[in-house]
Design a protein that fits this description.
112 residues; alpha+beta; rod-shaped
C-alpha cells in the first residue's frame, strides 16, 4: 500500500477526497449504463429495413431515378422504402434498376 500521512487531519482530507472521487466515478458509471440502455432500446425499436428502395432525383418535384434492393450500399440519401408492387411498377414505368444490387433480378422482372 502507498504511504499514508500519519496525522489525523491529512487522513480525513484524504478520506473526503476519495469519497468525492468515488461518488464521481459512480455517477459516470450510471450515466454510461443509461446510455447503453438507450442504445439497446433504440436498436430494438428500429423499424425493419425495407425490402425495396426507390431513389429520387434532386429537386422539389423529384422523380424516381433508381430502384434498389433493401440494404444496397449504393442507395442514395434520397431513397425511401417501397413495397414490392411499387418497385415492380417503377421498373415497368422505366425507372432504372440499380446495376449493383440488381433488384430487377431479385424481383423476377423481365423487360418486354
Amino acid at each position: 500500500m502507498h504511504d499514508l500521512p500519519p496525522d489525523l487531519p491529512r487522513l480525513r482530507t484524504l478520506e473526503t477526497f476519495l469519497a468525492l472521487t468515488l461518488d464521481e466515478v459512480r455517477r459516470a458509471i450510471a450515466a454510461a449504463e443509461r446510455r447503453e440502455q438507450e442504445r439497446q432500446r433504440g436498436e430494438q425499436a428500429r423499424p425493419p429495413q425495407p425490402d425495396w428502395l426507390l431513389e429520387l432525383g434532386i429537386g422539389r418535384d423529384a422523380v424516381p431515378v433508381y430502384v434498389h434492393a433493401g440494404g444496397c450500399w449504393n442507395a442514395g440519401k434520397r431513397s425511401r422504402g417501397v413495397a414490392r408492387d411499387q418497385a415492380l411498377r417503377a421498373l415497368a414505368e422505366g425507372v432504372t434498376a440499380c446495376p449493383h444490387c440488381r433488384p430487377d433480378a431479385e424481383l423476377g422482372w423481365l423487360e418486354g
